[in-house]
Write a structure and sequence with these properties.
Elements: E1 6-11, H1 13-35, E2 40-45, H2 50-57, E3 64-71, H3 75-81, E4 86-88, E5 98-106, H4 110-120, E6 126-134, E7 147-151, E8 157-158, E9 174-177, H5 179-183
Parallel strand pairs: 2-3, 2-5, 5-6, 6-7
Antiparallel strand pairs: 1-9, 3-4, 8-9
Helix pairs in contact: 1-2
Bound molecules: inosinic acid and magnesium ion.
Length: 184
Amino acid sequence: MDYSFIKKVLFTEEEIASRVRSLGEQITAYYRENYGEQEINIVMILKGGFIFLADLIRHIHHPLTVDFMAISSYENGLKDTGIARITMDLSTSIRDRNVLIVEDIIDTGLTLGYIIKILREKGPNSIEICTLLDRAKNRIADLPIKFRGFEIESFFVVGYGLDFRQKWRNLPFICTLKDEVFET
Ligand code: IMP
Ligand code: MG
């Protein structure tokens, strides 16, 4: 494989692994303390978070379930309004349950803000957010992020599940892209 598209590796495989482990420990402690043995119902919005989720749950030592949602990405419309269309809904009820949303990256927060509104209507006991990457400077919708991996600047990143036009999700590290990648 040709790696010449990479500008800079921001987080190595080892750095990610160590951060993910510590996030898992934080989540374990938080739910034990606040909810005893009650299950965590993890909700992931496809697809960017799938690698993070797979690694993270193996460091959460608490009973949990995993469910998925998918939304359509109207590239521009979505950014402006935060309104998305749900293309795949949860397969089980979250009424009175403790929901933990696991995300790859939160940028403006508009997508997640919209999803949280929908999830609230389903009557959960609690909703918390865990994101691997937080681009806090771009935030428009104010979101209470309980668990965060790394804060990042404005650069677009790929790898460890994150894509650019569906590519480079398989990189074990997280990196930025050379400018010419965006020009094609
Ligand atoms: P938001 O609604 O602006 O918070 O958009 C968040 C979503 O945009 C994430 O769940 C990603 O799917 C996508 N996204 C934002 N920044 C990046 C990035 O740097 N790389 C890959 N995907 C990104
Ligand atoms: Mg995403």
